[in-house]
Amino acid sequence: MKAPFPERDCGPRALARNAVSTNTNHTLEVAHLISDVDVPTLLLWGGDDVLVSTEWADRIAADLPNAEQEYLDDAYHWVMQNRPEAYRTALEGFLD
Fold this sequence. Notes:
With 96 residues, this protein is an alpha+beta fold. It is 43% helix and 12% strand. The chain folds into two domains: 36 residues, no CATH class; 60 residues, no CATH class. The radius of gyration is 15 Å and the shape is globular. The two termini are 26 Å apart.
């Protein structure tokens, strides 16, 4: 998401704006194929996300054969920014 944007247009606010403006048409075109993704998948979700609720994580996990979910309390939509240490710990645990 960051690559196409110039260096001067960086930081959390710019990243959030750019991500929100992402067109979902392409992801919706392949949504029916999600159950074919047969690799270990971690859904690391902000427990307090108000943009995309945890119900979406539940829905995605139900469609993915090898998904595990982890919700981080006191994290919102940008989990990596809200809880960087907890995010790293969870990701390292998943990748071990």
